[in-house]
Amino acid sequence: MKLKIFTLFFFSAVIALGLSCRKAELLQPEPAKVIQLTLTGASDVALEYLYKDSIIATPPVGGINVKTLLSVKDQNAVLKVRKKGTSEILLTKAMVAVPFDQTISIFYDGTKVYNSAISLVVKGFALSGEIEFLLDGKVLSSGTSTINNTFFILIDKGTTREITIRKKGTTEILLTKTIQAEIARQNIDFFFDGTKIADNVKLTPPANPANMMISAKFETIFSPQFKNVDVDIVFYTKPTSAAITTAGTKVTPELRLTLKKDGSFSSIELPPLPGPNYIYSFDIFEAGTNNVPYTTTASPFVNAAFPFKQNEGRYGSISFEANKSKLFIIKDTKNLAAVTRSTYFSGAVTDLSEYFK
Asked: Region 131-154: what's the mean pLDDT?
């Protein structure tokens, strides 16, 4: 009997001792863990980063790239971001002990905090007037003539923002582009003729490196006489030494580039010229015909001393560069040739290629 009582007390003591040790282990605090935190992003104003109410970083205005070590062990491990010198908290984030490497990105435009950003490259040419670029209805920038800007657009992941273009002093929207958060680099390539915008203008290389690619749009300076039709540019070749009154040689088989009356761009590849001292010249016809696209029975085309004759490639000069892509505006012209006492229609070429390289 005594042995049974002793045995019972012995096991009770062992169990109590075990429970006591386990309870003591549970009462010991969890050890703190160190993490490496990388702070990235950008801000238009100075920011302060606080951890447990102590300032741990004050990056300069602009790009943010800071690495720091933090000790994390309890629910009070909170990172806060505020405007420098103020108490306004822009972002609060609870920190966790794993993984070791952690990153927080913040993009701030002085009004709203975003978690992402993209680059928007805007390249183009405004033939006349000044145009404005707006982000979500607010003016971002403006420009004239050659425009080549890169904008840093702040955006939240999974959302979109909107870029619009208008002529300064007006409310009419000429172009709208939706910005996607998932595409790091986005582009707007455009041409503004003073009234309309042609967007996504690309200088595509020719499929055959021996050729030259041209993209062109047509504009008339003879609006009252123009028939408001699509036109064909018909190509000729001509030695550079030839007199202006010498007709060119029509390219065989015939090459026609149809330019729409709405002012949109059309493209064609031109083959190599017969020799180094040659140029391309051209006629302007009503599309699908060999008729000029004008009413020639009214002033300023009626001229008894200089009657109208077919151009036949006497005028309209285009130089050739193999494996190049060119962007042209072709405006019509009227030429009076004193030697032949004739009136010829042709075109003047404005090369915009340099603005889209």
From this structure: 92
If you average pLDDT over every residue of the chain, what do you get? 86
pLDDT in tens, 194-230: 888 887 677 889 999 999 999 999 989 988 889 999 9
* Tokens, residue 276: 């180094």
Which H or E run contains 31? none
Polymer length of the chain? 357
CB 36 within 8 A of CB 71: no
Structure tokens, 333:
């012209």
3-state secondary structure of 305: coil
**How many CB atoms sit inside 10 A of residue 204's CB?**
10
Q: How confident is the model at residue 336 (pLDDT cuts 50, 70, 90)?
A: confident
Contact status, residue 218 vs residue 259, Cβ threshold 8 Å: yes
279-297 pLDDT per residue, tens: 999 999 999 999 989 887 7
DSSP assignment of 258-283: EE-TT---EEEEEPPPSSTTEEEEEE
pTM attached to this predicted model: 0.62
For residue 330, the model assigns a pLDDT of 94
Please report, in angstroms and rounded to a whole number, the separation of the first and last CA atoms in the chain: 105
Preceding amide of 60 cis, omega within 30: no
Which residues are registered as beta bridge partners of 347? 332
Q: State the sign of the Cα–Cα–Cα–Cα dihedral 298, 301, 302, 307.
A: negative
